[in-house]
């Protein structure tokens, strides 16, 4: 972390191209304290966003997000993936806004959020709420008057590397080697892949059932029904009173842990009794330790 604003004072405009929450708060606060406009862009999967903070009386990042989100709810490009061309599009738009501000033409994104939908090839713009008088850094009585420890503030590391969540106990998880033994022994079970469909289309284990984490979180009826059907089919092979083993997998082993927590709450309620476990490290661990030819992305 920077212990002064010397670096920021050397420049007139700052562009934020980071992929983690602590850095976004750091760059925002530094720009407010040094009086610099902040051209910010982000991208995830096939979507992008662009806005200019701290510009012509407009809001700063903290005006819109006074407190950081819980670390386990944040998805970055390493975890969620991004189509390579989308950051390129957002980067070009970001450079355009920098040049417009530098040339004196001005930016129209000071109080607007430009949103790009790569799947539908559409742009749309929404108006942001104005600068907040109670903002901790740019408000009337700011409490943030110098840069702080943003990793402590956000509860997460200032890195673009894949995060490793640890939400479950040891008993709720198995290794890829243990899961391979289950597959080799032909033990009846359900393998639930909770990645978005676009990632499943890239690669997947052939015997997996795909229900995205978002659908599980929203309790989407059609997907819950699909899971119940698969559980019912398996129960016909097992003792009717037995718990159906369900193993949950994702890319890195983060979303699968969240899914396990939700499914455990649903067990015996919206779905029949199941025994749910997460596969540590996800499909990337499978590719590294079990099947080297399995695609990595």
TrEMBL record:
Taxon lineage: Eukaryota, Metazoa, Chordata, Craniata, Vertebrata
Name by which UniProt lists this protein: Rhodanese domain-containing protein
Domain Rhodanese: 185-295
GO MF, one example: metal ion binding
Keywords recorded for this protein, A-Z: ATP-binding, Cytoplasm, Metal-binding, Molybdenum cofactor biosynthesis, Multifunctional enzyme, Nucleotide-binding, Transferase, tRNA processing, Zinc
Annotated SMART domains: RHOD
A Pfam cross-reference name: ThiF
Cellular compartment(s): Cytoplasm, Cytosol
Keyword set includes DNA repair: no
Organism of this sequence: Alosa alosa
Main location class: cytoplasm
Gene3D superfamilies: NAD(P)-binding Rossmann-like Domain, Rhodanese-like domain
GO cellular component labels: cytosol
Domain of life: Eukaryota
Any one of the GO BP annotations: tRNA wobble position uridine thiolation
């Amino acid at each position: 972390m920077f212990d002064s604003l010397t670096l920021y004072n050397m420049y007139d405009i700052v562009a934020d191209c980071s992929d983690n929450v602590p850095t976004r708060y750091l760059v925002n606060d530094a720009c407010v304290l040094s009086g610099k406009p902040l051209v910010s862009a982000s991208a995830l999967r096939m979507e992008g966003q662009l806005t200019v903070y701290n510009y012509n009386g407009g809001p700063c990042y903290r005006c819109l997000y006074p407190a950081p989100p819980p670390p386990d709810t944040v998805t970055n490009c390493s975890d969620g993936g991004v189509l390579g061309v989308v950051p390129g599009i957002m980067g070009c738009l970001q450079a355009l806004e920098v040049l417009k501000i530098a040339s004196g033409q001005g930016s129209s994104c000071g109080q607007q959020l430009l949103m790009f939908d790569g799947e539908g090839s559409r742009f749309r713009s929404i108006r942001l709420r104005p600068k907040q008088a109670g903002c901790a850094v740019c408000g009337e009585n700011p409490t943030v008057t110098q840069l702080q420890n943003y990793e402590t503030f956000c509860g997460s590391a200032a890195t673009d590397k894949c995060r490793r969540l640890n939400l479950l106990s040891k008993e709720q998880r198995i290794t890829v080697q243990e899961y391979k033994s289950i597959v080799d022994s032909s033990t009846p079970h359900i393998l639930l892949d909770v990645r978005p469909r676009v990632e499943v289309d890239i690669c997947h284990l052939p015997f997996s059932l795909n229900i995205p984490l978002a659908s599980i979180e929203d309790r989407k009826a059609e997907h819950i029904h699909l899971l119940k059907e698969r559980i019912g089919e398996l129960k016909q092979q097992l003792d009717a009173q037995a718990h159906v083993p369900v193993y949950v997998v994702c890319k890195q082993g983060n979303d699968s842990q969240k899914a396990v927590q939700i499914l455990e709450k649903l067990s015996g309620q919206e779905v029949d009794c199941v025994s749910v476990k997460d596969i540590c490290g996800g499909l990337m661990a499978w590719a590294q330790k079990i099947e080297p030819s399995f695609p990595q992305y």
